[in-house]
């Protein structure tokens, strides 16, 4: 066939293939348009998961008759002032999404500007536009899409069930709501309310963080709000803010990690790898933290057009952004001190009842059940039989409450099973796993020592030559200086070959070939060398485990109190190296409720 121009309607349908994949992508485009229009309230209504109807109503600026006519034309937009594709400060491109959506469904737009006498209505069915007519409506814009993909019925076969499509839409609305707490959102499907977020308004800049946390709590649950440490880091015009969950609050997948760049929800491998790197010291590889991070940077330093749906971005200085994320999260976790998540205590209280397991994911405690420990504690503190009491056996006088308030982890009162320390606090009790707690303390001291003296290196008698593909070898060699700081010395030995001359002494005999291949793969996926760091930390963790107080060792009062004081003074002591809690805190009010005293 000779070269020819495609008809406009087919061009729009092809464009729709990039923008309109499913109902969720339609909702994303329309809600972003509403946000760009300055909306303070956005209502999304679906029917049959979005197949039959998608309606997005906002109270934004609205459009006049001329703007409405242009809104459904290709390459027409109210955005990009100055025709600058670098300094992008808006979300969607109204002139791109609306023609594509109208090409595959029955689209109706009703809009009215604030102060106008009446509104206007335009319909587009399968790419065919109707005349614009006056219409009564409230100020703002309502966009309705009926019969999605009726013009291209073959694509209906690729849609999932109504429930699955609704879940995808829910995730989109939640992500956009998290980035804009000042805007009210609602989502309903077949007259059933799915989401309703009230606007979290504030008059003071200092209160903005609290408003954001309220919205995050509404989306992610109260557990996250109660167990999140604020993150903030600034460097060279780049700013990272948000909240990082405590390591003891974790999940089996990374689905509760949310990332935003200049207010835009993204899923970026660089940012996901940075979060993993920040938590690698506190969680097992199969556990994932909860985190919400907002990256704000000059528009010219980030490219948001590398993906048709703008789900991915590219940074001019990726290393700077990654370093800010890792440093910001670790600083936040250090600031959290010895805290463990409140879900640990909640799971403990649940353990006292015969009800079903809690719905949240909490790492199980090792050792005897909490109910068994409680029974042992009751027996330990039960009054002695008057006939058996001896003058030499007397309970130590409890310190005054004011003294207890000086110690967040309290004062030791007993040791159970040679493993668990029971301490009294000003308003409750604390149960400490002595081995896990001391293991963390030893591990932190080893890290400090390594940071001060550097990682010892062992020169190989016969250097190892590792054959890789050329891109993998180039990735490794480009990070040779970073790897050398971790004790791994490599050099080029040809276009696709690397020679290893020194390895970290801590690793001992190791599979050098496998290590380098893992590092090359991780540099490609996450832009960071996690394998080497994790192996070093595993060795340190093993050494800390063998050098710590073992379970079964009897401790005296001074030793138990000394362990508690060290935990209070050591960051991250609330969890072991795999994210499990080192202690459980029960408030007196919760204990009283268990016994019906409240």
What are its keywords?
single chain, 5-stranded mixed sheet, 19 helices, 25 strands, 37% helix, globular
Strand content: 15-25%
- How many strand segments? 25
Radius of gyration: 30 Å
End-to-end distance: 84 Å
Helix content: 25-40%
Write up this protein.
The structure is a single chain. By secondary structure, the chain is an alpha+beta fold. 37% of the residues lie in helices and 23% in strands. The chain has 19 helices and 25 strands. The strands form 6 sheets. Strands 1, 2, 3, 4, 5, 6, 7, 8 and 9 form a 9-stranded mixed β-sheet that branches. It has a 5-stranded mixed β-sheet with strand order 10-11-16-13-14, with helices on both faces. A hairpin with a 3-residue loop joins strand 19 (411-416) and strand 20 (420-425). Helix 8 (269-279) packs parallel to helix 9 (318-335). It is globular, with a radius of gyration of 30 Å. Mean pLDDT is 80; it is low at 354-398.
């Amino acid at each position: 066939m000779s070269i020819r121009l495609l008809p406009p309607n087919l061009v729009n349908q092809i464009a729709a293939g990039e923008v309109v994949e499913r109902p969720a992508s339609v909702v994303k485009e329309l809600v972003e348009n509403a946000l760009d229009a300055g909306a303070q309230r956005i209502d999304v209504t679906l029917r049959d998961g979005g197949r039959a109807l998608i309606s997005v109503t906002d109270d934004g600026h609205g459009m006049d008759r001329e703007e409405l006519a242009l809104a459904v034309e290709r390459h027409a937009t109210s955005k990009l002032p100055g025709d600058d594709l670098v300094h992008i400060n808006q979300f969607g491109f109204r002139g791109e999404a609306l023609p594509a959506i109208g090409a595959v469904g029955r689209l109706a737009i009703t809009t009215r500007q604030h102060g106008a006498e009446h509104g206007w209505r335009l319909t587009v069915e399968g790419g065919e536009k109707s005349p614009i007519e006056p219409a009564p409506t409230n100020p703002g814009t309502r966009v309705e899409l009926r019969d999605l993909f009726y013009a291209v019925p073959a694509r209906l076969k690729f849609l999932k069930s109504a429930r699955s499509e609704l879940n995808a839409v829910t995730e989109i609305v939640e992500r956009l709501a998290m980035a804009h707490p000042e805007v009210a959102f609602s989502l309903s499907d077949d007259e059933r309310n799915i989401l309703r977020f009230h606007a979290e308004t504030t008059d003071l800049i200092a209160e903005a963080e609290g408003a954001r946390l309220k919205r995050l709590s509404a989306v992610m649950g109260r557990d996250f709000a109660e167990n999140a440490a604020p993150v903030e880091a600034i460097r060279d015009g780049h700013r990272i803010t948000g909240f990082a969950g405590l390591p003891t609050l974790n999940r089996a997948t990374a689905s509760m990690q949310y990332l935003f760049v200049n207010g835009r929800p993204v899923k970026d491998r660089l940012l996901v790898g940075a979060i993993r790197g920040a938590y690698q010291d506190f969680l097992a590889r199969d556990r994932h933290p909860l985190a919400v991070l907002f990256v704000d940077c000059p528009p010219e330093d980030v490219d948001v057009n590398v993906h048709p749906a703008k789900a991915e971005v590219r940074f001019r200085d990726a290393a700077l952004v990654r370093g800010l994320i890792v440093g910001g999260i670790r600083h936040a976790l250090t600031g959290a001190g010895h805290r463990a998540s409140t879900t640990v205590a909640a799971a403990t209280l649940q353990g006292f009842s015969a009800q079903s397991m809690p719905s949240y994911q909490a790492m199980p405690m090792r050792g005897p059940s909490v109910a068994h420990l409680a029974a042992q504690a009751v027996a330990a503190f039960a009054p002695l039989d008057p006939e058996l009491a001896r003058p030499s056996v007397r309970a130590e006088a409890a310190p005054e409450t004011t003294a207890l308030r000086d110690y967040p982890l309290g004062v030791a009162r007993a040791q159970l099973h040679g493993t668990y320390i029971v301490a009294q606090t000003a308003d409750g009790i604390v149960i400490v796993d002595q081995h896990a707690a001391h293991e963390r303390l030893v591990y932190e001291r080893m890290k400090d020592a390594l940071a001060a003296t550097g990682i010892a290196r062992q020169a190989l008698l016969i250097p190892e030559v590792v054959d890789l593909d050329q891109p993998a070898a180039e990735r490794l060699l480009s990070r040779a200086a970073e790897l050398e700081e971790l004790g791994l010395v490599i050099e080029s030995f040809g276009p696709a070959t690397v020679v290893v001359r020194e390895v970290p002494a801590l690793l001992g005999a190791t599979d050098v070939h496998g290590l380098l291949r893992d590092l090359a793969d991780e540099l490609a996926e996450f832009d960071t060398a996690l394998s080497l760091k994790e192996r070093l930390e595993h060795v340190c963790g093993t050494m800390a485990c063998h050098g710590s107080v073992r379970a079964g060792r009897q401790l005296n009062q001074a030793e138990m109190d000394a362990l508690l004081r060290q935990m209070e003074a050591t960051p991250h002591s609330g969890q072991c190296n795999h994210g499990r809690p080192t202690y459980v805190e029960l408030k007196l009010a919760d204990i009283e409720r268990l016994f019906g005293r409240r």
